[in-house]
Amino acid sequence: MKNFKKNSIIAVAFVSLFTFTQCAPQNEEAAQPVQTVQPATSTLKVAYVNLDTLMSRYNLAQDINKEMMRKEEDIKMKLTEKYKVLQADQADFELKYKNNVYATPERAQSEYNRIVQMEQEIVQLEQSLTLEFEKEGLEKNKALRDSINKYMVEFNKDKGYDFIITKLGENLLYANPAYDITKEVTNGLNARYATKKK
Predict the structure, then answer these.
(1) Looking at per-residue confidence, does 157 or 27 come out higher?
(2) How far is 81 from 77, CA to CA, in rounded Å?
(3) pLDDT tens-digit profile of 73-84?
(4) Which of 12, 40, 87, 168 has the fewest CB atoms within 10 Å, i.e. the most exposed one?
(5) How many other CB atoms are found less than 10 A from the CB of residue 50?
(6) Domain map of the chain by residue range?
């Protein structure tokens, strides 16, 4: 996809340059014959990988997804327990305050401050755990992307494709199924992952 974007930018730059030179005033003495570039006679060898399918069938992606879901559940459970304790303490404080249980206003203020401090600590913990979770998710996604990119370099040594593009959702208007190498790539990635997992 990067190469496609790069080639698109180069093409736009070329068209812009060509349009600019056509609109610029021409000096008859300085006029040079326009050179046309002939397209290469060889055909491009192109294939595509359905990224949605690859991610749902690549064992490393599945393992990462399961691990991150477990971590997310652990974080939610930890925070839920802490918020339950906080709510119970708040309810207990309100009941005692209404019933004038505290011996002095200072004692009531001290308990109130303790509950406020507890709430602030839980909010800070939630922010910290969320940032840590997001950072780990980014690292795992980078590792997953690197794994796929490195494999594609190895894979293409024998195949000799000029382009291997990704089909994600509906980003391609049309792709001939004959050029779909998703299954082959997925099998290769899973075989390589299985050997690394041992």
Answers:
(1) 157
(2) 6
(3) 999 999 999 999
(4) 40
(5) 22
(6) 33-197
